[in-house]
Amino acid sequence: MKSQYDLSNYPLWTALVTPFDAQDQVDFDTLTTLVRQQEQAGNGILLLGSTGEGLALTLPEQQAIVEFVCNLAPNVPLMVAVGGINLQEQLAWVEFCNQHPIHAYLLGSPLYAKPGVIGQTQWFDALLSATDLPCMLYNVPGRSAVEVSPQVLKNLSHHDNLWALKEASGDISKFEQFREAAPELAIYSGDDGLIPYFAQAGAKGLVSVAANAWPEQTAEFVRRALAGTYPNLFTTWTQAVNSLFSVANPIPVKVLMHQQGTLATPNLRPPLTHLELQCNAAIERANDTILSWN
């Protein structure tokens, strides 16, 4: 099934958090609210990425979230993350998701094993071959312990559904290498704070953590960054969003969303805990700054 959306019309994708209730179960009522907020802002929605604590959830929980959000039928596209280390499990996950009205996949590089160019090529080739939907590859060496090689993109160029790359190495020079290796590929910043600089280098958009807390403001900032307007806000933006990464994501953003009243609890799944964030002053200042824009 081909995507019904022109994904190029969605420069901002929100890597949606997974809300938990006081019993540490998925809070589906709050999940509905989060989806509607992103829908109202016109943002694409990414489910079960690292911000959504996808790998800390059980398979039945993952499946329930996909089915629930699909049944909400938001009028923005849905992307689902594919990540782990067992290829057969990932192929089974794609097969499950293929049966639901989603519109794209985020394909993470395999965790822990640190494959080289051949292993990465085989991994992504298998996943790309398992679906007709557009796929965004994910370069995040800080989590996977290995960088996606630009050569891998060249090796996979025969796949028509290789649509985009989420670049989250934090290295602008790596962005340039990817763009040279795959000039037709849409490259999205995976770092909120770097979107002004990635935009100047030719990025197509942002996969965002910050948009969970500030859906409308982040969407507007991405539009401005891509248009090259209001550069006076760039430093302010970077300082604000960097507060969301003072400890492991998504701890600060969930704490902030709890303070905002959006989440019933700031709870996370082990090994993450909101107790890691021992001072809330930085995220409170960031919240005041960003909300003052509107």
UniProtKB/TrEMBL annotation:
GO aspect biological process, one term: diaminopimelate biosynthetic process
Top-level taxon in the UniProt lineage: Bacteria
UniProt pathway annotation: Amino-acid biosynthesis; L-lysine biosynthesis via DAP pathway; (S)-tetrahydrodipicolinate from L-aspartate: step 3/4
Catalytic activity: L-aspartate 4-semialdehyde + pyruvate = (2S,4S)-4-hydroxy-2,3,4,5-tetrahydrodipicolinate + H2O + H(+)
Main location: cytoplasm
Key words, A-Z: Amino-acid biosynthesis, Cytoplasm, Diaminopimelate biosynthesis, Lyase, Lysine biosynthesis, Schiff base
Entry EC no(s): 4.3.3.7
Active site residues according to the UniProt entry: 138 (proton donor/acceptor), 166 (schiff-base intermediate with substrate)
GO cellular component: cytosol
UniProt cross-references to SMART domains, sorted A to Z: DHDPS
Site for Part of a proton relay during catalysis, residues: 50, 112
Binding site for pyruvate: 51, 207
GO molecular function ontology, one term from the record: 4-hydroxy-tetrahydrodipicolinate synthase activity
Stated role: Catalyzes the condensation of (S)-aspartate-beta-semialdehyde [(S)-ASA] and pyruvate to 4-hydroxy-tetrahydrodipicolinate (HTPA).
Record family assignment: Belongs to the DapA family.
NCBIfam families linked: dapA
Name of this chain's protein: 4-hydroxy-tetrahydrodipicolinate synthase
Organism encoding this protein: Pseudoalteromonas phenolica
